[in-house]
Design goal:
Chain lengths: 217, 550
């Protein structure tokens, strides 16, 4: 299971966000460049199609593949009260022929996405991963070199933390409290809920940038 | 301390001593009152109330500080400053009010004793303390330096000039500070900072962009390339070069749905074989009576042609639950044997059967199994809900198998799915009773006899008599009718059910089903024993169930 929240930030403030995260997390950022292929199962595998995501990490010299299945989210009154989405997730590293394998099973490519940005992974009550990426679409199949951003001016911020059924409430609390630190720059919410941008983000970003400017002097 | 005003003794100005006490002390019982004029100028009662209120506020603040000190937490300075300013203002107001009439009052010490006798005169005197007085003099000296010899009015002029200069300097400084604040975007210190609001148009644009982005990332909206336009680029990126060859590419994007019909109920060859077997022996086997069919029996007995479970799957339990994992070679032999049987099958099912057989040859690994698990769990949850909601026993069979069918379709190839299938099958009401064909003959006859007592028995006997010549489709109707609703026709689900015997490791369900059967309790007597075979294989079943129900 994992807890996840998403938010958007204007591209102009991404650097300020990076500075803020650097200060909060204390770890260096890692570059992220992931080619995400979303496969849907064909009718031979059942009436209800299942969806599987293959993530190819292109940031490393040798690409590494991960398969990921996103399950249903926790539902109920309790789930509605928490501001974080808790959902089942199955993830695994796989060999590089996973794509061919899934194709031969009858899965078909539904859509693909290239995510470029940076990520911070740190421990703060839970193992939290903050990913700030620009989602790019590819005009032609598999053409990762020709990817263009889906929304040029806006980038996606995603905060995830793995959880288990027993401890998900603590993880939810850790993620929520961390989200509060980012409140000056962005609103974070469950993936399906859109919250808009923070109107004062420009001021907050300016102050972050100016502070760092002073430091470098 | 008490104060007296005018010629009339009055009530204490201080908050502590109650007025009634004063009156009690003084011999005349009648309470003295302030001079009427003074009363207008200063309402002593209100002063007292305000003073008491102020005292309480201050003591509260002190208590808060005490608590902060004890608990070692950082206080919120904003709040504390606010409280201070409030207290300060209140005190200032009280003092101002009293100052107005202070001339009418004289401070008279009440408790004089040895302790404060010495200091009281000093406290009461209006003369400044020596240090303050000295300081005052020094300041005056500094101010009037150079002016003392001038006539007084000139001194005044000069002082006024100085004041003006200082005033202008202060104004200029304030202006500079305000300008600097604006330049740095710090906002004014006083008053609420204006929250910049987004222009409506801008906000709408951003909202639109956000929706686009979220939809793209989470659901893939706007990213799908139409199948026509999907052709491989001339140069693949490096990470895909060795993964994809052109041969594979073409087959992936073609729409294979033409081969399979829409709702592909899983149609196993084994089913066919068993049905064939059943058909050959009409009278003995057919069930009509829905009875839970333990897969243990079916597994071992059934696939009469399926002897060995697939060896390559080391981790698949070689138990009777392993029904689905029949190796293809054996299936193929079965298929050849059963070809003529398949002629009876409607075209649709034939195709499905072919499809199934093809699929069987490439069983999926555990990943796939897991990948469908969550969906299964969800659906099972739904099924269970349906199960519980439906009151009538006959309806049980209809609500569940639809999802069952879906489960089974998806699970055909995964050995790990068997557990799930077993779970799902427990939910099934009565269709699974079709497995009876796979039961031992004794059990079948027992069930059949038991079924005789049911109201449907007439139909059943009729159906069984004609079974041999029937095609598959009416067979399914028959199975449905076992529940008592002849109109319903669930074409393929029962065939599936035959495939997967009921892994009735959930005794509760079994009991439930038994209870809901009317009549043939005898038939169930043998079933629990066969269930025991399955128990070891169904270890994780209850846990999964719980997850589903969450």
């Amino acid at each position: 299971m994992e807890c996840v929240v998403q938010g958007i930030i204007e591209s102009q403030h991404v650097e300020a966000l990076q500075i803020l995260l650097q200060g909060l997390c204390g770890v260096p950022k890692e570059r992220v460049r992931v080619h995400e292929l979303c496969l849907k199962s064909g009718p031979n595998l059942g009436v209800v199609p299942s969806e599987v995501r293959l993530l190819c990490d292109l940031a490393q010299p040798t690409p590494s593949w991960t398969v990921r299945h996103v399950g249903g989210a926790m539902r109920g009154a309790g789930a509605e009260q928490i501001s974080v989405l808790v959902r089942t997730i199955v993830e695994s590293k796989v060999g590089h022929n996973v794509l061919r394998f899934f194709y031969s099973l009858g899965y078909k490519l539904d859509h693909e996405l290239l995510k470029e940005g940076f990520v911070f992974r740190f421990q703060r009550g839970a193992q939290i991963t903050v990913t700030v990426t620009s989602a790019n679409k590819m005009p032609k199949l598999y053409a990762t070199d020709e990817a263009v951003p889906v929304t040029p001016g806006i980038q996606l911020v995603e905060i995830t933390a793995p959880a288990a059924a027993e401890n998900y409430s603590e993880v939810v609390a850790a993620v929520s409290s961390f989200c509060e630190y980012l409140a000056p720059l962005l609103h974070l919410s469950k993936p399906g809920v859109s919250m808009g941008i923070v109107p004062t983000a420009a001021a907050a970003a300016a102050s972050l940038m100016s502070n760092s400017g002073a430091k470098t002097l | 301390m008490e104060s007296t005003g005018g010629a009339v003794p009055n009530q204490g100005q201080q908050p502590q001593p109650p007025a009634a006490g004063d009156a009690a002390v003084q011999p005349p019982p009648k309470a003295e009152r302030l001079n009427a004029v003074l009363q207008q100028q200063l309402n002593l009662e209100s002063v007292k109330t305000r003073a008491i209120g102020l005292y309480k506020a201050i003591s509260r603040i002190l208590e808060d500080f005490d608590a902060y000190a004890r608990s070692n937490t950082t206080p919120k300075w904003q709040d504390i400053l606010g409280q201070f300013s409030m207290v300060n203002m209140e005190l200032f107001n009280i003092v101002e009010d009293i100052k107005k009439v202070s001339k009418a009052f004289v401070v008279c010490p009440k408790n004089v004793n040895a302790e404060n006798a010495a200091i009281l005169p000093v406290m009461l005197s209006s003369k400044l303390l020596p240090e303050i007085e000295a300081e005052d003099n020094a300041k005056r000296e500094q101010l009037l330096y150079g002016l003392t010899n001038l006539p007084v009015h000139m001194q005044i002029e000069k002082l006024k000039g100085r004041i003006d200069m200082i005033e202008t300097a202060c104004e200029a400084a304030e202006k500079v500070i305000a300008d600097a604040r604006k330049a740095y975007g710090l906002g004014s210190r006083q008053g609420p900072t204006l929250v910049p609001t987004l222009d409506k148009v801008q906000a709408a644009k951003i909202q639109e962009q956000e929706n686009l982005l979220r939809a793209a990332v989470n659901f893939g909206e706007g990213l799908r390339i139409h199948t026509d336009q999907r052709h491989l680029p001339s140069s693949l990126p490096s990470h895909l070069v060795d993964v994809l060859t052109f041969g594979d590419g073409t087959q992936n994007f073609g729409d294979n749905s033409g081969v399979y019909t829409k709702n592909t109920p899983s149609f196993s060859s084994n089913t066919v074989s068993t049905q064939g077997a059943v058909m050959q022996t009409p009278g003995t086997q057919l069930m009509g009576r829905p009875a839970p069919s333990p897969s243990g029996v079916t597994g071992t007995a059934s696939f009469d042609n399926a002897s060995t479970p697939p060896l390559p799957y080391a981790n698949s339990p070689r138990s009777s639950t392993n029904m689905m994992n029949t190796p293809s070679p054996q299936q193929q032999t079965q298929q050849q044997q059963q070809r003529q049987k398949m002629m009876q099958i409607p075209q649709q099912h034939q195709q499905q059967l072919h499809a199934q057989q093809q699929l069987r040859q490439s069983p999926s690994p555990g990943v796939l199994g897991q990948s469908t698990m969550s969906q299964l769990n969800d659906i099972q949850g739904q099924t269970q809900q349906k199960f519980q909601q439906v009151p009538g026993q006959h309806q049980m069979q209809y609500s569940q198998p639809l999802s069952q069918q879906q489960f089974q379709n998806r699970q055909l190839q995964s050995p790990h799915m068997q557990h799930n299938i077993a779970q799902n099958q427990i939910n099934q009401g009565n269709q699974l009773r079709s497995h009876l064909s796979q039961f031992s003959g004794a059990m079948n006859s027992a069930l059949f006899n038991a079924a005789q007592s049911s109201p449907n028995s007439q139909m059943l006997t009729n159906m069984s008599a004609t079974m041999q010549s029937q095609s598959l489709l009416p067979r399914m109707q028959f199975y449905n009718m076992a529940g008592g609703h002849p109109q319903r026709n669930h074409p393929s689900q029962i065939i599936n059910d035959q495939m997967f015997g009921m892994n009735a490791s959930n005794p509760a369900n079994m009991v439930a089903m038994q209870q809901q059967q009317h009549g043939p309790q005898g038939g169930f007597g043998t079933i629990p024993t066969s269930n025991q075979n399955l128990q070891p294989g169904m270890v994780n079943f209850p846990q999964q169930r719980q997850q589903n129900q969450q």
